[in-house]
Amino acid sequence: MPKAETWKMPRLLLLLALALLAIPPGAARAEADPMDLFVDGVEAMEAGELARAVDFFDQAARMRPDNPEFVYYKGLALEKMGKNGEALVLFRDLLEKRPQEYRKAYFDIAAVQVKQKQHQEAMATLQEAVASDPGDARARMEAGVVAREMGRFDLAIQYFEKAAQLNPETAPTAQHMIAVTHLDMEDFDLSENLFRQVMQTYPNDPVAAASAQSLAILGKIKKARKPWYVRAQFTMGWDDNVSNQPLDPPPAVRYPEKEDFFQNLYLAGGYRLINEKERRVGAGLALHHLGYRDLSNNNILSWNPHFFGEWDFTRLHLRLQYDYGYYYTGGSDGLAQDDGMYLTFASPFDKLRTHQVTSSLVLDEAHGMKTQLGLAWLQKDYFDLTPDADGFTVNVVQLKAFGNSGRTARLGYTFYYENAEEERYTYFFNEGTAGFSTPVAWGVIADASYSLVLTQYEENPALWKGDRKDTTHRFTGLVTREITDWLQVSLTYILNHNDSNVTRAGVDEYKYRRNLILAALSLSF
C-alpha cells in the first residue's frame, strides 16, 4: 500500500503540471489578474491594434463584470474602429445604469453623433447633460462647440460665457471660442479685439498661442470676404534664350539663343456679385503685358475678361471660370526704354483670340493630404495664317502637409492635347512634377520642384519626318516672403533643358538650354 501511494502522488503532480502548460500564458495570467488584461488593452488601443484591444477588454469584463471601466474602454475602442452603433449601445447602457459615475459618456455619445453629422442629436445629448448637472462647465463648453458647428452662433456664445462663469479654469478657452464664433459671424473688428484680449489676459496659457494664430489669418479671411478684389504683380526678369515667336504653337517656336531683360505686369480686378461664405460668383477684368528691353518685337499685350463661381462644402471646394483673351504682339522702343521701362503698351498687331473654360476641384483629406483636380478647355483663334486649334488639359496634384510645420510635399501630373486645323501643328504632352515647400527663416518660404515633360508633335514634312518627340527637364527654385497681408516678394530661378529626336547632320535642331531669373512684387487687396 505505501508503494502504491508513492507511485500515485508523483503521477498526479505530473498531470497537473502538464495541464498548466497546456493553458496559454495570456489565459493563465488573466485568471490571476484581469487588470493586466485591461492594461494590455489600453496599450493595444494606443498602438492602433483596436481589434486586440476589444478582445482584451472583453476578457477582463467577463472576469470582472462588476467593473464597468472595462466596458467603457471597449466602447472607446469600438468608436475608433468606426463601429459607432456598437459604441453608442455601450455608452448609453453605462449612462443608464451609472449616470453619475459615467457622466463622461454624455460627451462620448455626442462626439459619435457629431462624427455621424447628427448635430441635432448631439445637441440634445449635451442639453441633457446640462440639465442633469447645471453646474458642469464642460457640458456647456461642449454644447457651445456643437452649436457653433450648427451655425447657431448666439447660442454658442451663451454656452461659452456660462462655462467661464461656472469654472474660471475654462475662461481662457471659452474667451477664445467666443472670439472664433464672432469670426464665424464675420464680426471681424470685434473678433480681432477679443483675440487680443485673450493674448493679453492669459499670456502664459496655451490658448494665447491659438489666439495669435487666429489673429495672423484674420486679415486674409477679412480680405476674402470683401465683395471686390484687386491683384497686381510686377516682375523683372532675365531670359538667356528668348523665344522669337512666343504665341505660335510649339512646332514653330525656335530658340535663337538671344538673351534679354524683360518686365511682366499683371493687373486684375473684379467684383463678387454673390459673396457668401459657402459660395461666391463674380466677374472681373485682367491686363497682362510682357515687354522686352531689346527684343521688343516679342512683346505681348492681352485683355482678359473673366467670370467665375466658387462653392465650398465640408471637405470639397469647387471653382468654375470662363476667360476671354485678346492678344496683341510686337512693339517698338518707347521713350522710357533707356530709363528702364520696357512696358510700352505699343503692341500693334492683333494676333490671337482665346476662349477658355477651367474647373478645379480640391478635396481635403485626412492626415494632411489634399487632392487637386483641374480640367480645362481652350479655343485658339489666330488672326494670321497660324492654324486655329482646340486644347484640353487634365491636371492632378496630390499634396501632403506635415502637421503644423508649414512643410508641404506634392506630386503632380498634367496631360495636354492640342488639336490644330492642320495636323502638322497638333501635339500633346505628359508632365510629371515633384516639389517640396518649407519655411526657412525670417518668414521666408523656400520651394523646389522638378518637372519632366514628354512632348510629341505630329509629322511636319517641312521641318521633320515622322513624329517629333521632345524631352524637357525643368528645375525650379523659389523663395518668397509675405511682408504684409497684401504685399509679397519673391525670387525665382528656372532651368529648362530640352532634347528631341530630330537631327540633321547629327545635330539635334531642337536641343536648347534656357535659364530664367525673376524677381516679383505681388499685391492683393
Features:
Porin; disordered N terminus; 16 strands; alpha+beta; 2 domains; 35% helix; elongated; 525 residues; 38% strand; Serine Threonine Protein Phosphatase 5, Tetratricopeptide repeat; 14-stranded antiparallel barrel; two-stranded antiparallel ribbon
**CATH fold node name of the largest domain:** Porin
Summing up helix and strand content along with how strands pair, one would put the structural category as: alpha+beta
Tally the helices: what do you get?
13
The rounded distance between the terminal residues' Cα atoms is 107 Å
Helical content class: 25-40%
Could you give the count of β-strands?
16
Strand percent estimate = 35-45%
Question: Could you please describe the fold and organization of this structure?
Answer:
Helices cover 35% and strands 38% of the residues. It contains 13 helices and 16 strands. The strands form two sheets. A 14-stranded antiparallel beta barrel has the order 1-2-3-4-5-6-7-8-9-10-11-12-13-16. Strands 14-15 form a two-stranded antiparallel sheet. A hairpin with a 4-residue loop joins strand 6 and strand 7. Helix 5 runs antiparallel to helix 6. The termini are far apart. The N terminus is likely disordered.
